[in-house]
Specification:
mainly alpha, 15 helices, globular, Put_Na-Bile_cotransptr, membrane, transmembrane helix, Na+/solute_symporter_sf
Length: about 325
């Protein structure tokens, strides 16, 4: 039987399931400590596998296109924060101060890797440049996102210094990633052969963080703090932010004279935010019940961006074939 078109993908259903389980059976007492340890180990494994999967040759192939990369980074780390600040008078009355902080956290995050590359490939954009930009965005975000969080939100959830936050992220995210890159020479072929089921490592890690975060949030009363009208307002806020980001990246890229393949790459690499990086990073930067409220905008934005970008990618994929060659610079 064919899957209904309106039915969300399996991972989206699993995310909703994790939130539902946390709502009905939140971790309490000693269970919280156990889940936090398991979650931290799972996050380390997640970034180790990211390092093992990422091909250095594909990244080097796209490095020369510096104008494209500079624009993607500007959209990710400058345009998004500016949009978040500009929308404050509209969003704060619509979704409340706490969810607005979650929107600002969303704006500070790096771009996605897998989905940005996948959509660029489907739409026949500049794939080597997409690989380079998306991968570099994730690595730069490890250092830049905590600084942006401090500038946009005023303070970290745990009250530590920016250097402390960066240090924790380096230990929990960057070091496992580097270890994965080192181990790639021995396990890279095995990872490539088994990438189908290894994606379960990514998804399981994120589901663990979501369950742990929402367990904290439920105990603190998140669903009393976020009524249905506010939740619907958050969906509209995410749609508005994504629409402005997509429109801005496309118009800026066209104004700067990039060709169609490059504009497609800029569109998908510069308008997306990473759930896979954002949720583990939030686990390091923030603490307690506030974490659930802060990642809720990211979870919604992630699903909306996937659905919208899938439609856009299919539209560009349907254009007539031309004799194009992937560019390296």
């Amino acid at each position: 039987m064919a899957r209904p078109r309106l039915l969300p993908d399996n991972f989206t259903l699993a995310l909703l399931g994790a939130v539902a389980i946390a709502t009905l059976l939140p971790a309490r007492g000693q269970g919280v400590v156990v889940f936090e340890w398991i979650t931290n180990l799972a996050i380390g494994l997640l970034f180790f596998m990211h390092g093992a999967k990422l091909s250095g040759s594909a990244i080097l192939a796209g490095m020369g296109h510096w104008r494209l990369h500079l624009l993607v980074f500007s959209c990710t780390f400058v345009l998004f924060p500016l949009l978040g600040l500009a929308l404050r008078p509209l969003l704060t009355p619509m979704i409340g101060a706490e969810l607005y902080l979650g929107m600002l956290y969303l704006c500070a995050l790096p771009a996605t890797v897998q989905s940005a590359i996948a959509f660029t490939s489907l739409a026949r954009g500049n794939i080597p440049a997409a690989v380079c930009s998306a991968a570099a965005s994730s690595l730069i975000g490890i250092f830049l996102t905590p600084l942006l969080v401090l500038l946009l939100m005023g303070a970290q959830g745990e009250g530590g210094s920016t250097l402390d936050a960066i240090g924790k992220i380096v230990v929990q995210l960057l070091l496992p990633f580097i270890a994965g890159q080192i181990a790639r020479r021995w396990i890279g072929d095995w990872v490539a052969r088994n990438k189908g089921w290894l994606k379960n490592v990514d998804q399981s890690s994120i589901l663990l963080v979501v369950y742990t975060a929402f367990s904290h949030a439920v105990v603190e009363g998140i669903w009393q703090q976020v009524p249905l009208p506010q939740l619907l307002g958050l969906v509209l806020a995410c749609c508005l932010l994504l629409a402005l980001a997509l429109l801005s990246t496309w118009l800026i890229a066209r104004w700067l004279g990039f060709d169609l393949e490059d504009r497609i790459t800029i569109l998908f690499a510069g308008s997306k935010k990473s759930l896979a990086t954002g949720i583990p990073m939030a686990q390091v930067l923030f603490a307690g019940g506030a974490l659930g409220t802060l990642i809720l905008p990211l979870m919604l934005f992630h699903q909306i961006q996937l659905m919208v970008c899938a439609v856009l990618a299919q539209r560009y994929a349907s254009r007539p074939e031309t004799a194009t060659v992937a560019k390296a610079g």
